[in-house]
């Protein structure tokens, strides 16, 4: 069964990592339900992703995003299955 998750991402130098970040997110577009990005002064961006999928798929996405240099990721996964 699928679960809802929120993935919070901080891009510490968006010019360097945004392209790779966007490529990974695009490869999971079937799971994406929402995306909100906030650019901050000082070369930092905060992006929140809302996804629906199997826990293994959510963890795979989180792992791929976390492996990008300059990206910090934290995930909250709902306990209730949908």
Q: What would your notes on this structure say?
A:
- The protein is α+β, with helices and mostly antiparallel strands and 82 residues long.
- The protein has a single domain (3-81), classed as ACT-like. Chain A, domain 2 (Alpha-Beta Plaits), CATH 3.30.70.
- Helices cover 32% and strands 43% of the residues.
- It is built from 2 helices and 4 strands; from the N terminus they run E-H-E-E-H-E.
- Strands 2-3-1-4 form a 4-stranded antiparallel β-sheet, covered by helices on one side.
- It is elongated and about 40 Å long.
- The termini are close together.
The CATH superfamily is ACT-like. Chain A, domain 2
Order of helices and strands: EHEEHE
Radius of gyration: 12 Å
Roughly what fraction of the amino acids lie in strands?
A: 35-45%
- Supply the CATH architecture: 2-Layer Sandwich
Q: How would you sum up the major sheet?
A: 4 strands, antiparallel
Biggest sheet strand order reads 2-3-1-4
Pfam families: TM1266-like (PF21699)
InterPro entries: Acetolactate_synth/TF_NikR_C (IPR027271), ACT-like_dom_sf (IPR045865), FeFe-hyd_TM1266 (IPR023860)
Protein name: Iron-only hydrogenase system regulator
């Amino acid at each position: 069964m699928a679960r809802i998750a929120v993935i919070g991402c901080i891009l510490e130098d968006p010019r360097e990592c945004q392209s790779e970040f966007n490529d990974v997110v695009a490869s999971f577009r079937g799971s994406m339900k929402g995306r909100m990005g906030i650019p901050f002064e000082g070369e930092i961006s905060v992006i929140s992703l809302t996804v629906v999928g199997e826990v293994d798929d959510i963890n795979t996405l989180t792992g791929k995003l976390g492996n990008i240099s300059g990206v910090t990721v934290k995930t909250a996964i709902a306990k209730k299955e949908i």
